[in-house]
Amino acid sequence: MSVRAPVGNVNINPFEKICIGRGLAAIRSTDLNLQKYLFEFINQNQFLFKGNKGTTFDAISTDDLRQIKIPIPPKDIQEKIVAECEAVDSEVEKAEQIISSANSQIKEKVSNWFNKGFSMEKIEKVFLLEYGKPLPEIKRIAGEYPVMGSNGVSGYHNEYLIKAPAIIVGRKGSAGKVVYVEKNCYPIDTTFYVKPIKECSMKYLYWILIELELEKMIVGIGVPGINRNDVYQRLIPIPDLETQKTLVAEIEIMEAKIATAQQIIHSAAAKKQAILKSYL
User: Fold this and answer.
1) Is residue 124, in this structure, part of any structural domain at all?
2) How is 33-86 classified by DSSP, letter by letter?
3) How many domains is the chain partitioned into structurally?
4) Model confidence over 104-128: pLDDT tens digits?
5) Phi and psi of 269, rounded to 5°?
6) Is 270 exposed, middle or buried (0-12, 13-18, 19+ CB in 10 A)?
7) What are phi and psi of 116, to 5 degrees?
8) CA 23 – CA 26 distance, rounded (Å)
9) N or C: which end of the chain has fewer CB within 10 A?
């Protein structure tokens, strides 16, 4: 059972200094522990410090800041809050390191596929890049199927164009960007979608396309894009299907680590909110 601090709403005056600069304010306290506590409280309650007096941008004045009331618990409670919030920060830092390491391992593994002595074939012999179809927003009917633009999901529709799993490649706009989709979807005309000619693991082809860095093949002036005929000439390693699946399984172990770490990062704010709530 958590112990709630005997606190009351007090004026922001415990801050020794509020400095207003161009577009920002620096709030300072000579008590380092109080400063850390205030940082955590303000960071988790930013809505209290949002002004609305600006003409172009929202603004908040020094006088407004001084009128805001916040809970100031006893020093020992401040220390507990800060310690628990710092523990959450430590978890986030470790999660970020895991993500960075896993991404590096994935890149190294995929890069090595090109040096394992597998049969190398031109892309045009392995799969086609088919044009997506136009689907203006006015013609979309709300549904469960993601509408895929060159930069990822751009909406939803009640019909799909291709079945999952799917690989979408940006043709115009975010040209060369590669997205793997695990739901039936509707790629629009700013994209290509992968249509295999040979039996292949779609996840394997996805990582191959990532490794090719198609963004470096962008051509044109105005609205630059990639030319699928140029892509078709690239050579890629094509082992047998079972080998592809084995290689993908190794990558999926890294992906699972990344997903777990991302969840830790995404839940950090909620954890800090819970810490503050348990004491205040």
Assistant:
1) yes
2) HHHHHHHHHHHH-GGGG-----SSS----HHHHHH-EEE---HHHHHHHHHHHH
3) 1
4) 999 999 999 999 999 999 999 999 9
5) -60, -45
6) exposed
7) -95, 0
8) 10
9) N
